[in-house]
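Tip: read the tokens left to right.
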């Protein structure tokens, strides 16, 4: 630390910076004053930049994977010895997948004490839905529509990860997606740009807090810029070809929201977009992100995505790829090894302007200063704090709270739920019911296997009933390790008979079925959206002996549930809910928490409908209620509509909407009010949703667009008037030149409990 401090003193003094005044002459340590203003940081950044050689500046742009975990294919060109050598030379600006104070300190020490300038590393990690204590997967959290809870969840994740030496998370993923085949829908906020933007904003605020230099906060990263959620046919990493209107109105808004929230980094994407890989896309990274949106943080490439521009067929070779990426505004190279190997030569050959290198290095240094790493490079490395903070009870409480709020009740016939607490014989069936790993979901590198509360454990806490468990069948065989391909059980039905026997004598059967944790996530695309393996057979076999089934789903994406909706009395969408999963599910099943979640993605009736989403365009030949000819936009075999629409979710109570009024109060301002009444027997929470339809516009508008929502808690019989104000922001849209415009015309305003609501009012602007 002392050595580092002296070095910084020298750097600043030698070059006559105002920063000399920060030297505390009475001690050998430098008392770097806390960062108080933007100018202060800018002065420090510029001063430091002046001391740096071209290679050192490029070094800041180089990010290596750590030495333990791997979240992508290992590059052919890299080895550990080279990484250490580069670290010592100051040719590394960041490392990812380093975790644990001891490991981080060890590597940070090299950067700080062994390099010429002692510039600290920024340590990145995929803190996606928690670090060791896991919250629900992001798609599940989004089903809560509860922005405070989502923000809190990110705050907890940040505090826990920061205690393990990390200071930068590669989250939130704000990619809108309409395609349940794509495994990474689990990591986003679903299909809607309005909800997605609100959640993106909340997550950035949660991770970064109000003061980035605190040891409890992380720099956030908006990813993957852009349109990564639109891979053709839902196949991971596939080509993306989306039009301008979709890009401006659907893909970009959540990214813009992260900028409004002050996000400090962006990650570009593996995909090409209209023929140009996002990593080499000047329009995306320079013109839109940095110039138009005035983003002054830095852009990191995705894992090896610079090198992959060669495979894409966009760059001739690695050197050419580095040239394209640097010129296009990719500031940091994650694991391609190309910036560190090629950029200096490219600058000398005049193929990359040194000004671009300076700009990239500046951006990276700026964030390091803001994180307080120059004040104390070991501020995230406190062994005592690591011990005390990780896994603390308050984090588990927050995870439980978030998990309860994420559950969506899809069906509840004859009020089968909540379960009676006494005198019942309950059969609990399904391998996932006792699984303590799958509920952790995908992206859980730092969490230990077998640490989630299973549904079995959660239900065992309720002792008034007789509970009998039978597995029925495995979902997957063997390990569910992060990197391995999963092996799903498609043949072994040997334990069916035992489960059938248990179900036969039960009053109620609770079946926990769905996907194992790693069946969704990166590189986990599926073409079949049914229950994997032999689970559907198991379900139907049980149904033959006992129809009183509560289906609890564990999954990372929308599934096709027609049979289930038709035959089963109760269906609970419980996603992958993290560490506290089983407790949350049991509380909902027993009515100690009244479910309030609403779907953030449409659930299709058939895979053939995908991509399916509520905010589609009308076409010239839209759905006709009673078609007289065949010439309209439809399928011959399945309805156009989804099985469960966006925004859908039930409660143990019921709600009634009435007295919708919409009034134009000035040019582009509309006041909307509606009365909500709890007409059932339980206290409950409803997500009141407001949609608009702009009937005609210079660029066609979707049939419905979410433009407001509010969570409202009401006791039985209680009513409340809910009010919304729509302004230009909600009534306008982006034209194909990327300008935000509002056009006069006719609008319908819909308010209700899901995107199918029929309660509407009309206005003219
Ligand atoms: C690749 C993923 O696409 C990205 O989201 C992640 O942050 C990096 N790997 C690092 O693990």
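Filled-in amino acids:
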């Amino acid at each position: 630390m002392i050595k580092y401090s002296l070095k910084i003193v020298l750097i600043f003094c030698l070059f006559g910076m105002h920063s000399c005044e920060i030297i505390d002459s009475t001690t050998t340590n430098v008392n770097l004053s806390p960062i108080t203003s933007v100018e202060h940081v800018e002065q420090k950044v510029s001063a430091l930049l002046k001391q740096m050689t071209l290679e050192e500046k490029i070094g800041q742009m180089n990010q290596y994977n750590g030495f333990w975990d791997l979240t992508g294919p290992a590059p052919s060109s890299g080895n550990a010895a080279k990484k250490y050598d580069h670290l010592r030379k100051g040719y590394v600006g960041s490392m990812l997948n380093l975790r644990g104070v001891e490991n981080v300190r060890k590597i940070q020490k090299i950067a700080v004490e062994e390099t010429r300038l002692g510039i600290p590393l920024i340590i990145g990690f995929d803190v996606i839905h928690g670090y060791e204590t896991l919250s629900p997967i992001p798609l599940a959290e989004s089903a809560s529509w509860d922005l405070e809870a989502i923000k809190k969840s990110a705050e907890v994740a940040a505090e826990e990860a920061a205690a393990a030496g990390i200071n930068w998370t590669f989250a939130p993923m704000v990619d809108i997606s309409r395609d349940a085949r794509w495994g990474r829908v689990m990591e986003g906020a679903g299909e809607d740009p309005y909800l997605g933007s609100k959640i993106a904003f909340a997550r950035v605020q949660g991770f970064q807090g109000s003061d980035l230099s605190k040891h409890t906060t992380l720099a956030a990263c908006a990813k993957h810029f852009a349109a990564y959620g639109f891979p053709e046919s839902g196949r991971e990493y596939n080509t993306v070809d989306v039009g301008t209107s979709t890009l401006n109105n659907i893909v970009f808004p959540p990214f813009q929201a992260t900028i409004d929230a002050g996000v400090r980094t962006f990650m570009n994407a593996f995909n090409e977009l209209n023929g140009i890989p996002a990593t080499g896309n000047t329009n995306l990274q320079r013109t839109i992100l940095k110039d138009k949106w005035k983003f002054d943080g830095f852009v990191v490439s995705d894992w090896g995505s610079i090198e992959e521009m060669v495979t894409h067929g966009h760059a001739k070779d690695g050197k050419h790829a580095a040239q394209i990426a640097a010129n296009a505004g990719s500031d940091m190279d994650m694991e391609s090894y190309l910036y560190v190997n090629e950029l200096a030569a490219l600058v000398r050959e005049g193929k990359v302007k040194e000004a671009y290198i300076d700009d990239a290095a500046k951006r990276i240094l700026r964030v390091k200063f803001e994180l307080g790493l120059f004040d104390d490079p070991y501020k995230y490395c406190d062994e005592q704090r690591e011990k005390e903070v990780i896994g603390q009870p308050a984090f588990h409480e927050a995870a439980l709270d978030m998990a309860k709020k994420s559950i969506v009740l899809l069906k509840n016939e004859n009020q089968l739920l909540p379960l009676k607490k006494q005198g019942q014989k309950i059969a609990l069936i399904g391998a996932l019911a006792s699984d303590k790993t799958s509920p952790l979901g995908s992206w859980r590198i730092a969490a230990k296997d077998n640490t989630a509360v299973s549904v079995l454990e959660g239900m065992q806490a309720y002792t008034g009933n007789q509970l009998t468990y039978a597995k029925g069948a495995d979902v997957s065989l063997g390990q569910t390790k992060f990197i391995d391909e999963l092996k799903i059980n498609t043949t072994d039905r040997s334990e069916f008979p035992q489960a059938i026997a248990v179900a036969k004598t039960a009053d109620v059967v609770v079946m926990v079925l769905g996907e194992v944790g790693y069946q969704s996530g990166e590189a986990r695309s599926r073409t079949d959206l049914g229950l994997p393996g032999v689970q559907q057979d198991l379900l139907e076999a049980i149904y033959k002996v006992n129809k009183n089934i509560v289906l609890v789903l564990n999954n990372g994406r929308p599934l096709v549930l027609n049979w289930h909706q038709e035959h089963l009395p109760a269906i609970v969408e419980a996603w992958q809910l993290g560490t506290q999963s089983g407790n949350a599910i049991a509380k909902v099943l027993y009515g100690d928490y009244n479910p309030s979640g609403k779907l953030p993605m449409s659930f299709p009736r058939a895979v053939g409908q995908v991509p399916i989403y509520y905010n589609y365009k009308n076409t010239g030949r839209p759905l006709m209620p009673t078609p007289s000819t065949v010439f309209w936009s439809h399928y011959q075999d399945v309805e156009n509509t989804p099985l469960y629409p966006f925004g859908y979710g039930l409660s143990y109570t019921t709600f009634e909407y009435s007295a919708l009024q919409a009034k134009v109060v000035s040019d582009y301002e509309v006041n909307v009010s509606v009365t909500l009444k709890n007409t059932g027997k339980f206290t409950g929470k409803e997500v009141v949703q407001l949609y608009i339809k702009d009937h005609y516009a210079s660029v066609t508008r979707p049939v419905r667009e979410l433009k407001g929502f509010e969570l409202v808690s009401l006791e039985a019989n209680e009513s409340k008037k809910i009010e919304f104000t729509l302004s230009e922001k909600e009534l306008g849209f982006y034209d194909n030149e990327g300008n935000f415009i509002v056009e006069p015309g006719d609008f319908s305003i819909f308010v209700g409990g899901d995107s199918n609501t029929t309660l509407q009012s009309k206005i003219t602007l």
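Residues 1-123+353-391 form one domain. Residues 1-35 have pLDDT under 50 and may be disordered.
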